[in-house]
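This section describes the prediction task in plain terms. A model, or a person checking by hand, is given the sequence of a single protein chain and must write out its three-dimensional structure as a string of tokens. No templates, partner chains or ligands are provided. The sample shown here is typical of the held-out split.
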Amino acid sequence: MPDVELRKMLVTVETIYHEFGPAPAQPLQRAAALAIIRNPFAGGYVEEISGFMDDLKPLGLDMADRLIAALGGDPAVVEGFGKGAIVGTGGELEHGALWHVPGGYSMRERLGDSKAIVPSTKKVGGPGTRLDIPITHINASYVRSHFDAIEVGLPDSPRQDEMLLALVMSTGARIHNRVGGLAAADIRGEDGLR
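The expected answer:
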């Protein structure tokens, strides 16, 4: 499989202190790591692409490490995660699907083998395309308080022959969450759902 050619990377952290109501004891932090890589399959149909997932694994681990570092260095503070990809217009949606395994399993590995599936989204678009990446709790997908999203994108990316790959993490529930459902404190962690 081809080498991973990285053009640029961005790591950003958003800190939310309050949402109209009283400030919580601990602000919520949401972080995103974006990597812009050359899409080795851009420009035409290639039948066998799945081997590229193995090539992307080191990038996934590096991005997960950068996110944890940006959130203070302790993986125990991470309660939510998600992933996504924007494929440049010279590629196809399936190229973004190559990020499912290396992106998701890298975060799960660095966070102590979390139980929940890592939510994901992908699309094809040109430079400046934005993507809303869903977030759920790392151990139970049904924890409503942690349903969230982070919008990501870069003005010059992805170019036609590139992909923007993203991982996101958060340190807790939405500020002032109050729509009920399974509480994080009540997770059984048996199936990644509850």
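For orientation: The beta strands are 6-16, 28-38, 80-87, 120-124, 131-137, 148-152, 162-170.
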